[in-house]
Specification:
Layout (H helix, E strand, L loop, with lengths): L1 H14 L1 E2 L17 E2 L2 E5 L13 E4 L7 E4 L15 E6 L4 H21 L15 E2 L13 H28 L7 H21 L4 H10 L6 E7 L3 E2 L19 H13 L4 E4 L16 H6 L7 E5 L3 E5 L4 H7 L5 E4 L8 H8 L5 E5 L5 H15 L2 E5 L3 H6 L13 E2 L2 H4 L3 H15 L3 E4 L2 H8 L1 E2 L3 E4 L4 E5 L6 H7 L4 E4 L3 H7 L7 E4 L5 H8 L4 E3 L4 H7 L3 H31 L7 H13 L4 E4 L4 E4 L23 E6 L1 E3 L2 E2 L2 E6 L5 H18 L3 E2 L8 H9 L10 E3 L8 E6 L15 E4 L2 E4 L3 E4 L2 E8 L10 E6 L17 H18 L8 H9 L4
Parallel strand pairs: 10-14, 12-13, 14-15, 17-22, 20-21, 22-23
Antiparallel strand pairs: 1-6, 2-9, 3-8, 4-5, 4-7, 6-8, 10-11, 11-12, 16-18, 17-19, 19-20, 24-27, 25-26, 26-29, 27-28, 30-37, 31-32, 33-36, 34-35, 36-37
Helix pairs in contact: 1-2, 2-3, 3-4, 9-10, 16-17, 19-20, 19-24, 21-22
């Protein structure tokens, strides 16, 4: 069958106009380890024709290595004909006719006859980077099918190139008792060959029935086509069925050339392994396009990850939120390290195995914290006597600059009014200086952008140093406005950001002084300061903790912005249900839905933008925890699948983060069971009452117990702090199933998300997320006089009752749902017109359970 595919491809190249030429249809396949395989996705956009199909896969296995497979996984109907961010395309314009049918048929007959005479199959050599030769169902335990070549060949010719394409004409002619447009000889020939083909299938193996479903895809009718070839890294094949390999809207980029160039530079700099973190100089979680170095070199675009490149290997570590995404985006050059899973080595352990003693590991010292660098340096020395070297030159940048590296964008520094901050920044300065006096520190160094923004209540700041009688602000001059200068007045000295490292190296006012610094201080900055016998206080930065505890004005701001945000979401869900269910529209993509959510949010007071990239995902894509819908070519929202929307807004009076999962058709029993167990976990955590001094890690099990009871779980934290018009992910508090070194106890005034979930890989995802505030709770008793805390719900968006299995709920849980929905209707309803779509949806979804 591969011979037929190759011949037909060559025929296309000869007889059709080529629009673009960069196509490698024969993918490079490497040796794989046991129970693993190399996946190649081929996505096509067919115009309407007889054999249109949305999810067909064929698995081709080599004789040499039966673990290795290629999966052709087209998604015909949901891709738009525009070039996506990743991948290489060719476009073929049809000019075929009946002559092309005869030519290709004759060619295939000649090739097939020669193969038959030699009494052997055409089996391309794996080392020559060609496709494979035999066909097998991926979930079959039998050996590859040895079909007679003449049956395979004739069945291919007649089913695809002639009979299939002419069925509409045959039916039309039958009514008119005509033979117009059909050769009687060819028709007779094709009928006999089809019978022979069917007989061959029955006589040899029922596994070859799998082939029938794939033949229409291989060629189909002679219509306009667009092909994209992409590769992902090795994934485990064991216990996988064909349904496990679904197409998602991520594309794999070939990183071979980039890695080759990086390794050349590594040799010049005497580096044996190069570290590529995700962060920028301020060690931010979300970075600008110009700082996405790890994404550039690896092709993996998730927000969390750490890449290491040696002279022979490349590996990337990421957490459970990104396992599926990384599997799809990383190419054959990379090994995916799934952090947290058994048997996955740490970065230092892996380096100690792939490197020898006294070899050099290097990193851009501006992009790693001093805390992480010192830990890694000590571990590498201890485990393998390996050196960690700080570089001031970024090797990835040297490559990227030749490939169109984007320039740094400088947004204006924007002061925030006292009516939103609740505390004048002069008061905050006094609080910080008072803390320095208590701790005996000379000053404080802040590099975290959210810490600085809270401290001065100005946005787009880069670094700040505060002494007892002086404050120095380092910022790009392009960001300074007259409004900024007026806001800061005589309080702060502004210095251009380009002077920061030089100042720390040469400014002797730091000598013999003790500073309070946060773990976000980058390594290069610390190395420069140390030249003057600078001493650091290892206690967490006072600002980081103070920022996490909101004042009364900020808490009210959270209530207000969450209510307005909930109104926007209710309007959106009402609109979406009407479009999908009542109007039965089938052309709303994930990205289009994300744009529509933004439209509704923009109507709300004080809205300033999204708080993170909207996660609008349907079906299998929702199992990718931090999925990013592509602007073009994304999946369409299907009423037969679960739809997950994780989105948030930035408002002058607060930040929101909400996730809801809905089904616009009829959910399966398993989907309802999973959804209900996630809901039970959400209710248990939201209802928790706990003593002062409790850390989030002590509460996490409440959200997972219902899932654990049936052997399920999820690979992300249950809650994170939320900033007030700041980072949507804010520390130091959090709720997770592991103890974090810098974790602090929950305190009244803190905010957190509550977001348990469950994700069935390649099938669906469920998450229910609200933002809540930590508040004091008055109880009948007060053991040890420590005081007790609970949560206040800020988010007011109904939970879809259609997905709830009431039989799994306790009486208390049912009452919680009814009370919450009563509160949603009472608070959100007045902001909606009674005859509006949003109001109708809100009323329907808040009915008593």
């Amino acid at each position: 069958m591969d011979g037929c595919l190759i011949i037909q491809y060559l025929y296309w190249r000869k007889n059709r106009k080529r629009v673009e030429t960069e196509v490698n249809i024969f993918s490079d396949v490497q040796e794989s380890s046991e129970e693993s395989c190399l996946i190649t996705e081929v996505e096509e956009n067919f115009s309407n024709h007889l054999y249109q199909n949305t999810r067909i896969k064929s698995v081709l296995i080599s004789e040499k290595t039966k673990d290795e497979v290629i999966i052709y996984n087209p998604d015909f109907t949901k891709r738009q004909e525009t070039k996506p961010e990743y991948g290489t395309f060719n476009t073929l314009s049809s000019s075929s006719s009946k002559v092309s049918l005869v030519n290709s048929t004759v060619t295939l007959l000649i090739v097939g006859s020669l193969m038959y005479v030699k009494d052997k199959y055409y089996q391309p050599n794996l080392s020559q980077k060609e496709t494979f030769s035999k066909v097998i169902s991926i979930d079959s335990n039998t050996n590859p099918l040895d079909m007679k070549i003449i049956g395979s060949l004739f069945g291919y010719i007649c089913s695809i190139l002639y009979t299939g394409a002419l069925i509409p004409q045959i039916l039309k002619n039958y009514k008119k008792r005509s033979c117009k447009g059909i050769s009687v000889l060819f028709f007779t020939f094709s009928t006999l060959a089809n019978l022979f083909f069917i007989f061959s299938i029955i006589s040899e193996s029922l596994d070859s029935i799998y082939l029938i479903n794939n033949l229409p895809w291989l060629l189909g009718a002679s219509e306009h086509k667009k092909v994209q070839i992409s590769e992902t890294d090795k994934i485990h094949l064991k216990n996988k069925s064909t349904d496990d390999f679904k197409s998602h809207s991520y594309y794999t980029e070939d990183t071979t050339e980039k890695l080759t160039n990086l390794r050349k530079l590594m040799k010049e700099y005497n580096v044996d392994a190069y570290l590529v973190p995700s962060e920028d100089e301020n060690l931010s979680e979300y970075v600008s396009n110009t700082d996405r170095r790890r994404a550039f070199i690896s092709g993996f675009t998730g927000s969390a990850g750490f890449a290491i490149v040696t002279l022979t290997d490349a590996a990337l570590w990421t957490d459970g939120r990104y396992f599926l995404q990384a599997t799809q985006q990383l190419d054959k050059n990379w090994t995916l390290m799934k952090t947290g899973l058994a048997g996955v080595p740490s970065r230092e352990d892996w380096l100690s195995k792939v490197l020898s003693k006294h070899q050099n590991v290097a990193v851009d010292s501006k992009l790693i914290s001093y805390h992480e660098a010192e830990r890694l340096q000590n571990d590498l020395k201890r485990i393998g006597e390996i050196n960690l070297i700080p570089l001031e030159t970024n090797l990835v940048d040297l490559i990227w600059l030749k490939n169109g590296k984007p320039n740094k964008a400088h947004g204006p520094i924007v002061p925030l009014g006292l009516q939103f901050a609740g505390e004048d920044f002069h008061e905050k300065i006094a609080r910080v200086r008072a803390n320095n006096d208590v701790t005996g520190t000379f000053g404080i160094v802040l590099t975290g952008l959210d810490d600085i923004a809270w401290y001065e209540y100005i946005k787009s700041i880069y670094m700040i140093i505060m002494f007892k009688n002086e404050i120095i602000l380092y910022a790009y001059k392009e960001s300074i406005t007259e409004e900024t200068l007026l806001h800061l007045k005589d309080t702060v000295s502004i210095v251009d950001y380009s002077h920061i490292y030089q100042d720390f190296s040469e400014n002797h006012k730091f000598s013999q002084k003790i500073f309070n610094v946060d773990v976000k201080l980058n390594w290069l900055l610390l190395l420069n300061i140390k030249k003057h016998n600078f001493h650091k206080d290892n206690v967490r930065s006072f600002v980081t903790v103070a920022k996490s505890i909101k004042n009364d004005v900020e808490i009210q701001g959270f209530r207000n912005c969450s209510l307005r945000d909930s109104v926007a979401l209710v309007e959106f869900f009402g609109w979406l249900e009407k479009e999908l269910v009542k109007k039965k529209k089938k052309n709303i993509s994930e990205f289009a839905a994300a744009k529509k959510v933004l439209e509704f949010r923009k109507k709300q007071q004080y809205f300033r933008g999204v708080s993170y990239g909207t996660i609008s995902s349907v079906g299998p894509n929702a199992a990718i925890i931090h999925y990013e819908p592509p602007e073009s070519g994304g999946d369409l929202i299907d009423v037969k699948q679960l739809y997950l929307l994780d989105s948030g807004g930035q408002y002058l009076d607060g930040t929101t983060d909400v996730t809801r999962t809905l089904h616009f058709g009829t959910p399966t029993a398993f989907e309802k069971d999973c959804f209900t167990r996630v809901l039970k976990g959400h209710i248990q955590l939201d209802s928790a009452v706990f003593p002062n001094g409790t850390k989030g890690s002590s509460l996490d099990a409440l959200a997972r117990t219902a899932l654990w009871q049936v052997g399920l779980d999820y690979r992300h934290g249950t809650g994170h702090g939320v900033g007030s018009y700041l980072n949507v992910h804010e520390g130091p508090q959090g709720i997770a199933n592991k103890v974090i070194e810098e974790e602090v106890a929950l305190q009244a005034g803190m905010t957190t998300s509550i977001e348990p979930g469950f994700y069935e890989d390649n099938k669906f995802g469920v998450r229910i997320e609200n933002v809540a505030g930590v508040r004091k709770v008055e109880l009948e008793n007060n053991f040890g006089k420590v005081g007790f805390l609970g949560f206040e719900k800020f988010t007011m968006v109904p939970i879809q009752l259609k997905l709830v299995n009431k039989k799994l709920l306790t009486k208390f849980e049912i009452e919680w749902i009814n009370n919450y929905h009563r509160e949603c209707f009472k608070k959100v309803g007045p902001f909606l017109k009674k005859n509006s779509i949003g109001y109708s949806w809100l009323k329907k979804e808040t009915k008593k359970l």
